[in-house]
Amino acid sequence: MRTALWRIARRHQALDEEIKEADREIGPLVTQAAPTLIATTAAATTWPAMPHTIVLGGLKYTRHTQEYIARRTAEGMAEKDIVRCL
Asked: Does the N-terminal or the C-terminal CB of the chain have fewer CB atoms within 10 Å?
């Protein structure tokens, strides 16, 4: 069991590094693709706007996200709070 946990921990570290690398690569692409959106949502920085941009895209185009919003709205949650949860 100890060996399995050690392997999982190594895999977690490798995936964490892969995510950090992807974040570094996607930042400039998002800035290039939607400079106005990023400028308006994040003022002078781009990283905080990326998750917000992804959520807004999901609100408009992803069925799963739209279903989640419908369910949470039916539960009485405000849209602002729903987006915050996403």
From this structure: N
* Structure token pair of residue 9: 């921990």
Q: 34 is written with which tokens?
A: 């939607």
Cβ atoms within 10 A of the Cβ of 44, count? 6
Asked if residues 86 and 65 have their Cβ atoms less than 8 Å apart, the reply is: yes
d(CA 2, CA 7): 9
Element at 14 (helix H, strand E) = helix 2-33
How far is 17 from 41, CA to CA, in rounded Å? 27
Distance CA 44, CA 40 (A): 9
**Left, alpha or beta for 33 (phi > 0: left; psi -120 to 50: alpha)?**
alpha
pTM over 0.90: no
Give 35's pLDDT tier (boundaries 50, 70, 90): low
